[in-house]
Amino acid sequence: MQNKHSRRFFFGALGAAAMSVAPLRGKSAQIGANSTINLGLIGCGARGRGVIVPNFGKMPGVRFTAVCDVNSKYLAEVRERAGGQRVAAYADYRKLVEDKNVDAVVIATNQQWHVLQMIAALRAGKDVYLEKPLGQSIGEGPVALAAAKKYGRIVQVGTQQRSQEHYQKAVELIQAGRLGTISEVQVWDYENYYPGSGFPADCPPPSELDWDMYVGPSPFRAYNPNMYYKYGYDWFRVAGAGHQVAWGVHHFDVVLWAMGVKSPKSVSAMGRNYAYEDNHEYPNTFSATVEFGPGPVSKQGFLLRYMMRTGGKRDVRAHGKCFIGTEASMILDRAGFSIVKEIPAGQKITSTGPYVNAEETMKPSDDVRRHMEGFIANVRDRKQPNATVETLHHSTAVGHLMNMSWETGRTLRWDGEQNKVVGDAEAQKLVMRPYRAPWKLVV
């Protein structure tokens, strides 16, 4: 039976029609400072009903006029929360983007749908708020970039840390040299899912769910209960790619932003189900080392070390990063940041020494609401955000490269300018995962 806390549910076409959507010329091109902005939501899972609707729905001058999902139960629930019978309800996202009473589209589906739905909305003349990550493979990134450029709409992505004041201040301090020369950035995602989800058998999907449309452009596979409970989709190739993509994209976005770089030089990763056994397709214990070349902050380049496990949190700062410099180190997460002065040569670290006494700290500000308010302001002012399709492409690519290294079992060299694995034809095939017919990725 489907768990009611499942986060996002996806949409697909009802039938095998082609992806083309005729351009519209409606209110979306004429929004003024005092106009009401009509939103359409694609994705009525926990993210849609627990974050998107409550935040956007409370903003002055904003209302939902349409919602969409392939799960009829969630569609009805979110429709009621978004405004009731006055809100149009669709099972096919293409119908929503064609709706002339929708000015901007919020996409909160799983990642295999993100680029297809973004392009359809842009082609229909809508502005877009797109949740992360960008797509199911790196190769979707350049297509998404081309679409954003071609249609010229406002596109903001859901890496909300870019709107948080303490992240902005942290980046400012790093780029000003406050930490000295940074040689390493440690990033971690720790959860405790022990003893795991077990090995339930494949079975028919819940009656309210159109499973074929949930799968969408991914290779089809039979429904399994573990693929549809809260965060379960992260661990199956149909709709996820492990925490290294789902959570990692937030961290990597901040690292690339702070360090002033776009793409790594090489990536090496390994992992297995060391903590427990279940039917998840990505490991519960995972580690990767990513090498970056010279940049404005680190003139000699630096290493990013990523650690992920779901068999123990270790400490309360379960998702964070540490920038390690010659003068000081900064621990940064959604709880704020702290800067600790580096230990002088020859001095030991003690429990009462400078290592545990933060020299400078900053507590967090709001994130999601502030980020979404920024999108509405940008729609009114016709200004592009600082969280763009390009920044999401590069931050998503880091996690996908880790998975590609893990799948091939070897270190990969990467040419970010060409979007190409250097000297490894087998790994290059993983850059763009094929779409299941009839879905096509066309700008």
Verbal overview:
With 443 residues, the chain is of the alpha/beta class. It folds into two domains: 27-161 and 370-390, 3-Layer(aba) Sandwich (Rossmann fold); 163-214 and 241-364 and 396-428, Dihydrodipicolinate Reductase, domain 2 (2-Layer Sandwich). The chain is built from twelve helices and 16 strands. The strands form two sheets. The chain has a ten-stranded mixed β-sheet. α4 (114-123) runs parallel beside α5 and α6 (165-175) packs across α9 (248-259). The chain is globular and about 70 Å long. The two termini are 38 Å apart.
Provide tags for this entry.
443 residues; alpha/beta; Rossmann fold; Dihydrodipicolinate Reductase, domain 2; 2 domains; 10-stranded mixed sheet; 6-stranded parallel sheet; 12 helices; 16 strands; 27% helix; globular; disordered N terminus
Overall body shape? globular
Spans of at least 5 consecutive residues with low confidence: 1-28, 351-356
What is the string of helix and strand elements? EHEHEHEHEHEHEHHHEEEEEEEHHEEH
Q: Helix amount, in percent?
A: 25-40%
Sheet bearing the most strands, described? 10 strands, mixed
CATH homologous superfamily of the largest domain?
Dihydrodipicolinate Reductase, domain 2
Kindly identify the CATH topology of the largest domain. Answer: Dihydrodipicolinate Reductase, domain 2
* Mean pLDDT figure: 90
User: Helix- and strand-based class?
Assistant: alpha/beta
Q: Number of domains in the coordinates?
A: 2
The CATH level-2 architecture of the largest domain is identified as 2-Layer Sandwich
The CATH class assignment of the largest domain is Alpha Beta
The N- and C-terminal alpha carbons lie at a distance of 38 Å
Q: What is the CA-based Rg, rounded?
A: 22 Å
Number of strands: 16
Strand order of the largest sheet: 14-13-12-11-7-10-9-8-15-16
Count of helical segments?
Answer: 12
Strand content: 15-25%
